Amino acid sequence: MASKSSKRIKDPERYEALREQGASKEKAARIANTDSTEAGRRGGKAPPYEQWKKTELYEKAKKLGIQGRSSMSKAQLINALRNH
């Protein structure tokens, strides 16, 4: 099993900048490890969270392990998902 110290950040400066902006460690690492030329081609296929049903948002939050999701409103789920 790999230890946390064996995980590498491909762009440490970007990671630190994201952390200073308030991004979680997980989100900052995910972004810092994404090739910037690939990132622009990937997203944008799913409808905005506002068009999702609350149950769909809940399932996405569950999949991501967001704590407190069962008592969140639709707006709170959207906020939690966007800031995860």
Could you provide a short overview of the structure?
The chain is mostly helical. Helices cover 52% and strands 0% of the residues.
Could you please describe the fold and organization of this structure?
With 84 residues, the protein is mainly α. It folds into 2 domains: 36 residues, no CATH class; 39 residues, no CATH class. 52% of the residues lie in helices and 0% in strands. It is elongated, with a radius of gyration of 15 Å.
The percentage helix is: 40-55%
Main sheet properties: none
Order of helices and strands: HHHHH
Name the overall outline: elongated
First-to-last CA distance? 25 Å
Proportion of residues in β-strands: under 5%
Please, how many domains? 2
Number of helices: 5
Topology:
Blueprint: H1 12-20, H2 25-32, H3 36-42, H4 54-64, H5 74-82
Task: Considering the chains and any ligands shown, give keywords for the structure.
single chain; 84 residues; 2 domains; mainly alpha; elongated
